[in-house]
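Worked Example 4.2. Read the sequence first, then its structure tokens.
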Amino acid sequence: MRNTTGYEREISVGKRDEAGWFVFPPIYTQCFLPALPLIRAAPDAALPRLIYHSLIFHGITTELSAEDDHFLKDVFHLVLELKLNERSVDKTDLLSRESSPGVWDANEPLILPEIIAHFTLSVFAELGGEERQLLASQKLYGTDLCDRLGEPVAILLDGHENYPNMVLKAKVGTTVDIFRRALGAEESNNPTEGSGVPNMTPNSSDQIGRFEGRRNLEGLLQLLSQISQNNGGRSPSYGSNSFGNCEDMNKRISQEEEAVRWTPDSHPDKPSRLNTLGNSLLVRFKRLGNLDDIEGAISRHQEAANLTPDGHPNKPSWLNNLGNSLLTRFERLGNLDDIEGAIARHQEVANLTPDGHPNKPSRLNNLGISLHTRFKCLGNLDDIDSAIARHQEAVNLTPDGHPDKPSMLSNLGNSLRIRFERLGNLDDIDSAVARHQEAANFTPDGHPDKPSWLNNLGNSLLTRFEHLGNLDDIDGAIVQHQAAVNLTPEGHLDKPSMLNNLGNSHRIRFERLGNLDDIDGAIARHQEAVKFTPDGHPDKPNWLNNLGNSLQTRFQRLGNLDDIDGAITRHQAAVNLTPDGHPDKPSRLNNLGTSLHTRFKCLGNLDDIDSGVARHQEAVNLIPDGHPGKPSWLNNLGTSLLTRFQRFSHPYDAEASIVQFSVASLSSVGPPSVRLIAARNWIYAASLINHASLLAACESAISIIPLVVWLGLSITDRHQHLAQIGDIVRKVAAIAISLDQCNKALEWLEQGRSIVWTQILQLRTPVDELRAVQPDLADRLLHVSSLLYQGNQDINLQKDHRRSPEEEARQYRALARERDEIVEKIRSLHRFRDFLMPPKLHRLIEGAKEGPVVVINVSEKRCDALALVYGVDEVIHIPLPDLTSERITQLQVEFNALLKSSGVRLRAVRDEEVEAGGDEGCKRILAELWDHFVKPVLDSLAFTHDPDTLPRIWWCVTGQLAFLPIHAAGVYNTGDFSEQIQDYAISSYAPTISALLEQADAPAQKPFRLLSAVEPSSGPSYIPNTEKELEYIRRRLQNRDHVVLHKADATRERVMNAMRDCNWLHLACHGTQIPKNPTKSALLLHGGKLTLEEIIRLNLPHAEFAFLSACQTMTGDAELSDEAVHIAGGMSLAGYRSVVATMWSIEDALAPKVADEFYAHLLKDGERPDCRKAAEALHFSVKKLREEEKDLKMLSWLPFVHLGI
């Protein structure tokens, strides 16, 4: 739905470079006129410089009076005469045109040859190829003009025909041979032949005849004047696609048609004039969309080619332009014969052009464009591969600094982007972004092609965002598209395209973030694009289509019927204006179908849903298998069919919708996010009619999730995707449970929860067994995984500040792709087919060796506990009929309100009266958790009330249940009856069963060494009891190895370094959880923060235990309830097998007591501390404090929890 404006060229800037070459400006329209009075009144010494500064800008002035035009002729005549006769004149001679000796000021540094060179270049910029050759061949005073003008003219004739599209570097006194060669055996680079664009701007009228002798000077000057007048005082802008008004165009074409009519077929200039006329008709077609013009252009180009014999140096140029015209007609009408003809002509031209010829790159480029276009229509991968190969050749053959280099790079980027949309290879889209960035970087500000390159860069960033979802990409796309719009003047032919693409970016960002300014801006930009495009223009349907998309999107948010009616009107107009066979027809039919479907859901008109289904079916029928858009359109067809089924209950519609959803979900192409949506719809449709494919639909969804949450994305982006994915994993698990597939349900929950955690753990997977078989492969996997592990955040991989964030992200994605390839290669080995595959049940059961593991699944339909008991080969299913998703959410809301009202968000001195008010609320919530959840689980697992012999139990909770204190559930009555989980078991939490397996398989222990980092002052309040906490720890450790970082010593850097040397850790400080950006949650140390993202990057293979005596270290993120996005989880990822943490803030006075009792219990036998006994130590330390302090408030001891083994 986006139009890509590209294939354009370089333009000049107005200054001298370091080598002293003068670089021409593209538009300085006021430079010449103000200089005329000065020239008339100037003294002799100043005259050369004034002529120089004035005449180099000839042809780009806004207007010329008759007097000024006459004076211009005089000056031009005299300058040429002075040079060609190599003599000087005085001022009288200048004014009278008489030849008499005179002297120019010897102190004047500017020499006349340079004046003539620059002036001649500006003249040549006005002329077509034939006209240029005629001018160059004139004999003035018996001397060939080419002999006198040298390289500047040769530059124009030999590969740089478009004056405003290049950096003209004019030095005097260099070779004439280049120029002679350009006029001789080798073909001149015809200005109408594309250096990067298949559609060129026409030249000035081909009216110059063959003149001889001095008399031709006056005729030449008259011609120049006429050209200036025909162009409204401006020279044609060959790179800007801005052609003045229609009257000028029509007048020019009429003159060219007249010249063709009066030129006999046998005349040698006939092909050139036909070609020029064909180009002008082509440009007018692109401007106005009249089919007669494109037909005429093809006819004239074909005739020019037919009249030119094989072997003639101009034959390739005429064939090239014929190919460009055929390509343009195909883009409008979609006739395959046209694109086949265009490719044939461009291939013929490329074959006829020898290696080393200056036009070789541009002709390869045009061939690449035609192949690219055919691929978009037919989807043949050979075409896009060949297109990329041709574009790459063109880039390779074009030296750095060449004015066509940005065009070649941009076209290569366009083709890479298109191939990415088909195959999804991230190398392609990253390369596309890089090529477009290079094109933009190589183009100076003020260059008329700069907007095109920025626009194409924006398109590639937008495409990458649609696949990966990185918000930096969509923000970058909008920045580039906005810049392209701002740099494109009103009335410019490309302005509507720039506006359209900017609108698309705003709409896409609205769909992600929901900011109404974005969708309003999108509609405004699309409306401008439509307004500025005349009826009949080939791009008009595209702009209408995209305007319809934005109106429909706003309707879905605001419900204004005018928007959906307007969307349908625009989409219908786009379809009507798009001929059958056009490559965009399926997309426009699809969008019309979606709008009709949307209105039906609002108004219920049967015609709308029937028409919507029909349009979607047409779109699907027209698009080939393997097309990247097909999954989306299949999903839309399925959605329309399902909606009709829900309204009218036709069984066929339900069955047909399931077919569409399944094909879309199982497709090997298309964005994973689209395929996941199709899988969700498949699940929903199959659930409605109890279809046999329901489990297959669930399996499909689970398999796609890792592709959406790909390792190559930053952790922040992966978390954003997970937040959008929502509760699909819990839904499919509930379906499996309802179908008595509890083993499968547990495997899916394990695979679909804590995904980021699992990905990071896998980067540390031991490869000893693999190394015994394939040592090189094992080493490569470890090397790449290590780089990924260090770079899995939004920071520089190697802290190389010479690289941009874009380059760093690209490098990270390349490493992730390399790792994917290595893993696939490993899985091809016989013994490693399941390498890093999600664990099966038999492996998961090993995680329950030390005690049962209970996974709680909370979904809208049902709540269940799935328990693993070591030695039992099946999952134990425990239904929880009295527990509902809605009630758990309500409990979590009530509990948060209780915490807020009690003021327990920071480690500090508490208000006991306020805190006491929270006890009754806690008791009620904990009792409900006990009755409806924990007690049924313990009963099913045959746990008994025996406080003296307590087994271990691990809780893996999902959804909002993760924010409730399961470890303390119970009945806390002050009377005779009291029953709590602490009397039945010692509770721990685990993000996944795989995490427990990883922690159990940790390497052998190193000698005990504890790091205590204590910082009481960094934070919102001073916490004095951290000093006491440190003294308690010192007393309990006695002579054991103990490293202390206290106050100013407890800096972020020193703590991180010490964590690498010590395998036990105790942190007493402030902590904070950042809900909107959880990876920025942190421990507050002296002078800085130790953030969660930094903790995760620490790879501490010998770490054992961490005590986090800080606030909110296991709070988590409500939007990522199935991910362990908290500081305690980060410690586990860093390597700590056992962690004591807090669910909310802790009381400063109580923290030292808990720590004291904890280490007393852990160190009581005098042996080396065992991190496996940390949960037990915490359990009994809290129990002892509760027994000793009868008035201890519940919110004081409840937050202490254990995570890990």
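Now turn to a second chain, presented in exactly the same format:
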Amino acid sequence: MKPPLIPPGKRPISLKHSTPNNIQSAFAEEQWVTAANLAKQRYRATKDSYYLALEVAAKSQSDNVADRNGGKVAVEAMIKDNVTLTDIDTLDLYEMACHRPDVKYSETVGILRARLVKALPRDQSSGTRCFDACVWNGDWKNAQQIGASLNTTFLNDRKFLFRYILATHQYSLSRDCPEGSKKLFTSLAKAQADKAFDFRVMTHGSEYSLDRAANTECEAQLWLGIRIAHCSPKENLALFRKPEYSPLAFLDIGQLEPFWASFTYLIKQQAWGDALRIGKTIWTEAIRISQAEALAVEKDKEAIRLQKLVDNEAEPNPRLQHELAHAQGMARPARSYKDHNYMQVCCEYNLFIALYDAARFQSDCKRELKQAGHLADRLVKALTRAGTMQPIYRKMYEMFKLGVTAGRDSVPSPQLASGGLPSRISSVVDYISKSYDDGQCVHNAMVFTQQFTALENIVFLDAVCNIPIKDGDDAHRRYALTCVHLRLRYFMATTRRYDICASCGGASCGDELTDNGYVLKGSGCISCLKSIAASALEAYKSCMRERDLVESMLPTRTMNPFSDLAVIGSICLVKIARIRGGRFNRQTNSLFGTDTQLFLQAVLWLETAASTSKRCDAHTVLLTKLYLLMGCVSRAKTFWDGFDVKNALIDSLGMTFADRLSSIAPGYFIGSDHDNPVAPFVAHFARAFKTTVPKRIMDSLDVGNYEGVQSMMEFSAKQAGSCSLVLAVIEERRGQRMKTGKIEASLDDQPLVRKLSIEHDLEDVTDYGVFSIPLLKEWQMTGPIHEVVNYGPLPTTTRAHLGLLAERFLDFVCYVQPKEYKPTKSGQVTQIDWKHALNTCNHLEQDMSALLGLADERYSVEEQERRGKESTKSLTESEYLYHQMILKLALTAQSVLEHAFVSTPTNGTREHIRGQIAGVLRILKRQTSDFLEVPSNMHSKLHGLHGFASLHAMGMLHGTIIAVKHTTNYLTTATEKAKNADKTRPPAELAWLTPELKKLTAAAAESEDTIKGRIKMLIQYLDNVDGWRDRLRHWTLTNSGYFRDRDLDFKQKVADDLCEIVPDGHAESWADRVGESWRELMKGWAAVRFD
């Protein structure tokens, strides 16, 4: 289920011009007390209800609970008493007064707006303002009623018809529409839109049009959106095949957006025959138009003269070429509007792709591809003759022809073995030879070769490796081609598509058993990864010998061989080092079971390449992630800050750095709020939902861009269901607890997440394509690098919801009633409070049990198993134990409330509660011991390194300690309250609970001391600067026996090559930066609060 939309910010309002200046000044300067008092005085003098509303609105901005809810109380009373406000300005003030309380707009202010419009049907200004206000607040229910009234009253104003259609359509899709009414409003929206569009079809080609017909492009888009949303594919396809409703009908009259929308719909529904027919029609028309223009150009004397001059030039002459283009343009006859539209879309990228896919999916695909290729040849020839061929058109044409050639039948194995290069392989090789410097070269090559067999791919890689290098070729071309070849090899070596390795032809890259007995799933062909890493190192060394020559060419080239070689080589080293990252998440250490030497070698190589030349985006992201894994957060942040991720990029890239950061580096959350790394997330999403989205919706509505309204609604829904949004809020709150030991504001005060429940589906929208490894589903990549280098599993719905539930539990146990709250019947109120608390614990326990896949009668056994596996895959070991602890604490609090406070405890319930507390103690002990664990096969001198890699586990243990302490404090306070509330209760009745709570306090204190001891040990570990520098360099570049002896020769070869690559003194300075980063990290940990 999709999450609910987040409510917008306060709609800007203006006071009446007749309002006294002193009130207007106080209101504008937000002097709310003064404004309220002045409005109150004015109301007494005039008895004008406008000033009463003004007083309520001003008071609603105060912190007093009663005043803040005054508007809500007043509006609810009006609705109950069936009051109708007929002054639009008064209603605006009541809307402002209801903004801060959590009210449902459609059931409060929206009802009053609908009543006003019905009471004043001829007041167009008030009706429009009410409609706009409902749209701003997402109240499509009342907007639909208001739109219907305006459309009925003002028949001559066509905008009200389409606003009514839009509101009906959006209401049918909204949550406010009852299930029994959805069909009715869906049919109503469809009928109104079809009627308007049918009027347009009736007047098509005539000299007149109807005011209530869908004549504009935006109105046609609205009609299409309704058809696609509410009608079956069968019905839509039958309609779009009619000439008057075909995509070509939109193209004929120049409505390009509806054309692309309907054409894309055909492709999405795999109506390949229709798509192929439309594409061929467009190309045939474009050929006809271009041939006519070519004949006119070839007869023009000036164009002929200039063409001869251009042909006779030995070197390109920009001036002559410009004059020739101008002469050809003057010679070409004027195009009709229809011809212009066809020429505008004939060379669009989407049309080329659609035609290629449509031909490929025909029954006789070979013949259709051949025909499409011939048609493309004719089109390019005609465009060239007419002088309208653009470079971008030729590039797309070449890509299309390449796809046509590569898409033919596979070559038999005997023919591959007999020598010679089949055309579908040679065409892709030629493309790489020409386009090696294009950032999309590897991605496009993989798209073209996805139809190759494994043997064809082996031949293809060999051909790429042997692309001839002429004597005149520059050094950059040589190394850039090497980079492309190595990336292609990596791609083939890590795919699961074939039974054999598509890179070397060896046995299938299955699971491998490591020394520790762990199964390494989906790593790829290890021998190929080693070979690629070794080749990258050799190429890098060679490139360094020609460094001056290569770097002199970089300003004019896209690819940087230094950076690309370091990236692909380091990726191979990291995968060989067996970083568990997101897949091996059942350990508390990010480097557990990792070959640390290979890992450090990858980091040093990337760092060296970054310091010697400009780096690509993948270089920056990979280095950032590796530094995070080893705990060098400040160093990671140095590289990450170069991206300057903000605004729109926050949702798609922000979590690449910020995920789990509060548990790794709490120091960034302890300083000022300005330095908080997730503060930009919360600010961005709050700004988007409060102002950006509603303002853009209103702007689109004002200009009649109904498709823009729908697009912004879809954008808002996507943002509301983003994992980045939820995890950012969770990280911010965890960071605040690191700083203060508690949270000041409740999660219910955070409008971004307060309405989310576990039934709502969230989505990870992070763009992992930034790692430069193409993510093509058809290739079934093993262990994508973004999973391998991530600090734990990637963001998921399960992790986000578990985090929110944990925060809600902490809000529950941390809540403190205001001191001024002193009820007269304290005993009765206490019982009510406990029942509410019991209900809260019950809901939390049920939701957490459901997400963790524990026994739950609401779900089948299969569903419980699925949820259990999902939670295991979504959480690190530390996170899993943390959420188990929250669940156990909720169960304990629930049992104590139910069996000790609400009712009288018995011997059985006492033992039950003691058993639950014992379970809490076991989990705390396990989490503490797991956090201290280090790999058994690691030398003791490396324990410090792995201590920095286990800080996430220490952060989650801190969260567990805080939860235990607050739960204990809550139950202790509740015990005292129970004794004071019921004087008849024997004093010894709850005495048994105090020793049990003291056990929890003592266990939490013991774990707290463990963390403080680890912090002290790691700080001391870094005190010897010179010794630390030598150790880190020694671990990276010398095989010292501290590591596993697997791949000894390979690791020594990598170390020797790195010694040649790394400049003198660079390894020492790198070790200094690593040590300084760790020291800065531990300063933050030293300031962490536990109470």
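Notes for the reader: The beta strands are 512-513, 519-520. Residues 205-209, 509-521, 580-585 have pLDDT under 50 and may be disordered.
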